Amino acid sequence: MELIKLKKKIAIIGAGWFGCHIAHQLKKLNKFDIKLYEKEKDIFLGASSNNQNRLHLGFHYPRSKETRLQSKNGFDKFLKHYSFLTKKIKYNIYGISDSPETFLDYDTFLQIMKSEKLKFKEIDSYKKFKILGLSGSILTNERLVDDYKSKLFFKRKLKNIIKTKKNIKSIKKINRRYLIEDKLYDYIINCTYFQEFVKHKDIKFEVTSSIIYKAKNNFPALTIMDGPFFTIYPYRKNLYNIYSVEHSRFGLNKDIKKVRQKMNNVINNPSFLHGKRKKIEKIISKYYPLFQKEFKFKKYLVTIRTINNTKFADRSFKIFFKDGFINVFSGKIDHITNASDRILKYLK
Ligand SMILES: Cc1cc2nc3c(=O)[nH]c(=O)nc-3n(C[C@H](O)[C@H](O)[C@H](O)COP(=O)(O)OP(=O)(O)OC[C@H]3O[C@@H](n4cnc5c(N)ncnc54)[C@H](O)[C@@H]3O)c2cc1C
């Protein structure tokens, strides 16, 4: 008599970049029975669609070697899977401010990036783009992730396993399995951006609000490191996403409920966001005096970010395994392939 091997059952909670990519990798193996639960009416409505969509190579993290290494290595692996979901950026500039507020001088920045063997070219940003106030700047090959195309891709690939409008409130353990609704699972993969079912002493949450502007003319991607500065990053056609380290984040707290409340307050208080936007525009105008003439405000993207609140700006991913319950602490978007490799190894 032939024995039928039953497929192990896996529930993934949260359909952003991490949940969708992990579900897609597991589905391709055809060895598991998978469900992907999402509380919203659609996938990719959390951080995965409300971020700057930079495919990181490591330049953004002069203070965290682990984040640089995961980004450098994750970048190539991400492109092997999803290069069609990314775009090249013609001029992608990192600059170091000449103000005393900078945490880092230009030479140290260059030294760190050279020691990581990251490829870049020095550029005179003033001559090329009329950007002032920098002690130096470089061009990098970091790319743009198309979050909208990515969402459509995963909706197509995962259509039989996604269950939207399913807010998973509790997961009961029964013997060695986990009960969700009326179904028992062998494994749970928690991809809620560490916002449900798990607590960690270093983890905090904050509301973030990046701002979308329409540009009259092409502008480079511009990131001013490392201190209370800003990034102007391409978003969609003629649109740019602007984020300020000082004025785009609010309400840092260990308690996710308080941060959700803060997010509701922020969304319902246009004058609060307007005030922050004016401050950001003032800072940008110091470095790019043509800003007000060239850029027109369109909308805010508000979401909650989960952060590892250590002083080294560690943004690397981490995964915690316990009795078949897998908690994913998301790092950067291009860390997803390393995260899924680690999970596959565990499941084997
Ligand atoms: C302002 C900002 C800028 C950023 N910029 C970049 C960048 O340029 N490059 C980069 O690589 N990274 C960036 N990041 C980080 C990046 O966005 C995140 O690391 C990534 O999107 C996390 O993906 P995720 O799938 O873990 O989380 P999410 O996309 O938030 O997905 C989690 C999902 O879980 C769902 N969920 C939560 N609770 C439940 C529940 N109980 N039941 C069912 N579903 C649930 C949520 O609705 C959500 O859809 C940025 C983040 C922010 C906030």
Describe the structure.
The protein is of the alpha+beta class. The chain has a domain at 1-64 and 148-202 and 316-348: FAD/NAD(P)-binding domain, CATH 3.50.50. Helices cover 30% and strands 31% of the residues. It has nine helices and 21 strands. The protein has helices at 17-29, 65-82, 106-115, 125-129, 147-157, 256-267, 270-287, 291-294, 336-347, and strands at residues 8-13, 32-37, 54-55, 86-87, 92-97, 121-122, 134-139, 143-145, 162-163, 172-174, 177-180, 183-185, 187-190, 203-215, 221-225, 230-234, 239-244, 249-253, 295-308, 318-322, 325-329. Strands 5, 6, 7, 14, 15, 16, 17, 18 and 19 form a nine-stranded mixed β-sheet that branches. A six-stranded mixed β-sheet has the order 9-2-1-13-21-20, with helices on one face. The protein has a three-stranded antiparallel β-sheet with strand order 3-8-4. Helix 1 crosses helix 9 (336-347). The protein starts with 7 loop residues before the first strand and ends with a helix. The chain binds flavin-adenine dinucleotide. Residues 13-19, 37-40, 45-48, 51-54, 56, 166-168, 191-193, 195-196, 208, 210, 243, 303, 305, 330, 332-334 line the site of flavin-adenine dinucleotide (FAD).
Task: Classify the beta-strand content into a percent band.
Answer: 25-35%
Amino-to-carboxy terminus distance: 26 Å
How many individual helices? 9
Structural class determined from secondary elements? alpha+beta
Kindly provide the radius of gyration, computed on alpha-carbon positions and rounded to a whole number of angstroms: 21 Å
Which overall shape is indicated by the principal axes computed on the Cα atoms?
globular
Q: What letter string, H or E per element, gives the SSE order?
A: EHEEHEEHEHEEHEEEEEEEEEEHHHEEEH
Q: What is the tally of beta strands?
A: 21
Ligand species: flavin-adenine dinucleotide
Q: What is the CATH top level name of the domain at 1-64 and 148-202 and 316-348? A: Alpha Beta
Give the overall pLDDT as a whole number.
96
Low-confidence stretches: none
| CATH T-level topology of the domain at 1-64 and 148-202 and 316-348 | FAD/NAD(P)-binding domain
Q: How can the largest sheet be summarized? A: 9 strands, mixed
Per CATH, the superfamily of the domain at 1-64 and 148-202 and 316-348 is FAD/NAD(P)-binding domain
Helix content: 25-40%
Q: At CATH's second level, what is the architecture of the domain at 1-64 and 148-202 and 316-348?
A: 3-Layer(bba) Sandwich
